[in-house]
Amino acid sequence: NSPTTGWWRRETRATTVALARKDMKRKVIIAAIGVVTMGVALAAGMPYCNAARHEASRTRCMSRLASFGSALVMYGLDHDGAFPANIVEMAPYCNNAMLFICPGSRTRRPASLDIATATSWFDYIYIPWPGGTNTPPDYPIIYDRSMSHHGGKGISLLTVGELQRPKMERIIWDEGAQRLKGFASQHPELKIPLPEHLKPVE
Q1: Helix/strand/coil (H, E, C) string of the chain?
Q2: What is the mean pLDDT of the chain?
Q3: pLDDT band at 182 (very low <50, low <70, confident <90, very high)
Q4: Of the residues 77, 146, 154, 200, which has the maximum number of CB atoms within 10 A of its CB?
Q5: Model confidence band, residue 181 (pLDDT cutoffs 50, 70, 90)
């Protein structure tokens, strides 16, 4: 090989290496831009994803309370209009233990969801209706035990007056639990328990 040929090969090899390095840098920069862009997009879309998740959870929660309301109506028909004294008495009218769990709740559950022991893991507050013509129609029967179930936005609520309506129209979405707080404030003698993580009525 002549010196001229050796020099040309060295120059060609150096040029090839430089081009390869430049191409690698370009690919790394493009990949980095892609990662940053994806991160920004995910960050921007996160609030919308959370809102959609809470909305879906709220809809499912209200559907479960509607089913619970149907079970209450059936119980009343079998017991001369009386309501169950506690949630355990509802077992014969509820064939699915998941009915007692709010989809938005993150509370740990026992391995076996036995309705007979539901009082220890029930996600809702159940208040037996005292009955009688003097009972206010907006008397709350069942509602979310905690404001955290729906991101602190409100609670699903079933009242006595709503039981006469069609199934899915029975449940009220109580924004900020204001309706429940108002009822508890107007009827302190009933000692209505408020959901967890809710500021007490002053």
Answers
A1: CCHHHHHHHHHHHHHHHHHHHHHHHHHHHHHHHHHHHHHHHHHHHHHHHHHHHHHHHHHHHHHHHHHHHHHHHHHHHHCCCCCCCCHHHHHHHCCCHHHHCCCCCCCCCCCCCCHHHHHHCCCEEECCCCCCCCCCCCCEEEEECEHHHHCCCEEEEEEHHHHHCCHHHCCEEEECCHHHHHHHHHCHHHCCCCCECCCCCC
A2: 76
A3: very high
A4: 154
A5: very high
